[in-house]
Amino acid sequence: MFVKSRRKLTYTYTWLIILFLVVFSIIVSAIFLGMAYREQQESIMSTLFATTEKGNVAIPDLSNSRGDDLYFFYVLDDQGNVLAGSSAYPQLENINIQKIIRWHPRDVSFRLDWQPETHVEVRQRVDIEIEPKLPPKAPRVLMAGERLLYVGARPVMLDNGTIAVIYAAKDVTFYYEVFRNLLVVFLLILVVFIMAAVWLSNSMSKKAMIPIQQAYRQQQQFLADASHELRTPLSIMNTSLDVIELENGQDFSAFTKEVVVDMKEEVGRMSRMVQHLLLLARSDAGSVEFEKASFDLVPKVRQWVQTIEAVAHKKQISLKAELPEQLAVTGDVERIKQLVYILLDNAIKYTPEGGTVDVALSSSPKQWSLSIRDTGMGIPEHALPRIFDRFYRVEEHRSREEGSAGLGLSIAKWIAESHQGSIEVKSALGKGSTFIVRFPIV
User: Could you give the angle at the alpha carbon of 331 between the alpha carbons of 325 and 333, nearest 5°?
Assistant: First the structure.
């Protein structure tokens, strides 16, 4: 139980640390992108609105442009004709124009364009008068790597009344590569942080569980001690009531007999609850030993059903068993018997007169199962997740009337899990409940 709780705490602490790192990374990345975007936009804006002393559009000379300068600058009319322009790579002019020729913004606009790796043949001119005997030079291939361009556009009307669009682009590949490397660094840091977070979270969860474990051990010790101390006086009380009833029972009045019967029922209920508490305390401490052996379960179940059949007949409940001819299993006979009695007792308690309780055994190559179905009052949907919790009772007043302390199903679950099995319940109000216990075949 504590292992699961500690694991949950470890997961919680780990996810919190990772979430903090992820949020921090997103904030840093957003700040970096915002600063780069603003810087490049301001640079392009200044170029788009630059004019000469006469008020004409200023055409920058990009023949000697560096990587952080403009990549290209063009003025195109509404027909796509180049009116003016300059480019850091004149050989790529056609490719650049093809990217912007269909973009006609109505206002100042910006966008990112990805330029794939490009190969362009550049033919070199040979002066025949200077070098008449030399053969023509082979074309030189210009290779331009992948680039990310940040392009801005502004519509403008020229002096002659022509409507044109000014396009300016900057190469922001450097920022893209920096951002990509930043992401790689963040991922590496995240991996390191995950390992550190798991170690740190595991250490923190261990420390957080120490007081809980101490309190739980004290509680279990108290339950064990109290159960031991209560068993003797309850046994004495039960024996004393039997002696009184045997010696003076014939002289009792009707009221006295009723009081004695009530006292014996209460003592019996308290004795069962003490036995259950002691069993659960021992199970938590791991001091309960299971004597597992191979046996045929069918005659055992038939015998247990016949034993409790008298209780069912008192409420006129039909108790049926659908059993195979043989079912060899491995387990602790006494514990499985206790589990069957708990489920049958519950089914009979909460089934009204004239109802039915069905017991069925089935098997498959990997597991065998026991199902007990009743036509009782059913269990509300909100109570199903807690039905196997200790001391949990769906209806407090009815459970007290039936003598239930809310421990039986907890013990049934413990027995099933101790056999590496499982127990589940399917129920609906007014339609009854079905408890299914599954055990692996070993």
Answer: 75
Q: Which DSSP string corresponds to 304-366?
A: HHHHHHHHHHHTT-EEEEE--S--EEEEEHHHHHHHHHHHHHHHHHTS-TT-EEEEEEEE-SS
Ordered by start, the domain boundaries in the chain are 2-42+180-208, 53-171, 211-285, 292-440
The counts of H helices and E strands in the chain are 8, 14
Residue type, 354: G
Q: Is the pTM of this model over 0.70?
A: no
Distance, in Å, from the CA atom of 174 to the CA atom of 257, rounded to the nearest integer, reads: 98
User: Tens-digit pLDDT profile for the chain (442 aa)?
Assistant: 566 777 777 778 778 878 888 888 888 888 888 888 888 888 888 888 887 767 778 888 887 766 557 888 999 988 888 888 888 888 888 888 888 888 888 899 998 888 877 655 544 444 444 445 545 544 444 445 678 889 999 998 887 778 899 999 988 888 888 888 888 888 888 888 788 877 877 777 777 777 776 776 666 666 666 666 666 677 787 788 788 878 777 777 888 878 888 788 777 777 777 777 777 776 766 667 788 899 999 999 999 999 888 888 888 999 999 999 899 999 999 889 989 998 998 899 889 888 999 999 998 888 999 999 999 888 888 888 888 887 777 765 444 455 556 778 888 898 899 889 999 999 988 889 999 999 998 7
The structure tokens 């602790």 sit at 332
Q: Are 269 and 309 in contact (CB under 8 A)?
A: no
Angle, nearest 10°, between helix axes 408-418 and 333-349?
Answer: 150
* CA atoms within a 13 Å half-sphere pointing along the CA-CB vector of 302: 10
CA 12 to chain centre: 11
Question: What one-letter code names the amino acid at 288?
Answer: V
For 226, residues 6+ apart whose C-beta sits below 8 A from its C-beta are 277
Report the CATH architecture of 292-440: 2-Layer Sandwich (3.30)
Determine the topology of domain 211-285 in CATH: Helix Hairpins (1.10.287)
Do 419 and 368 form a contact (C-beta atoms < 8 A)?
no
